[in-house]
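User: Can you help me understand a structure? I only have the sequence.
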Amino acid sequence: MDHNKNTFINPTVLFNPSNYGFSHIAKIPEGKSLYYFSGQWASDVNGQLVSIDFEKQVRQTVINIKTALNAAKLSINDVVKQTVYIVDFTMEKKQVLIDVASKEWHAEYLPASSIIPIPLLATAPNCLIEIEIIAAK
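Assistant: Let's start by predicting it. Here is the structure, written out as tokens:
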């Protein structure tokens, strides 16, 4: 095991979270820097919502996360934790998130994750998803 790499742990006595796009535990080795990213949402470069369609919002949100990571000279593989906020959460929206993320989020290891249902986001009217991340490198 490389002691300089982030470690992701999924105890066998807990369910396998990989089908849901996350790991149970992320461990950051000593000496790495932590990067805290503000929540990203489906905005264009002018801060306007790109669509009212949930799937399109998820796709744009992931693109924005990748853009922010790139600006910090990081990659998806450096993400250790994500928190997903979904307006008017349904199991169908969760499945869309999993489906889109599995196509867009090509990480060697899946980060620790939480999904939080909420009634409203403060980002923009009709915004349905926001994702904040923590990365380590």
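Now, to help you interpret it: The first helix runs from residue 54 to 71. The chain has a mean pLDDT of 90. Let me know which part you'd like to focus on.
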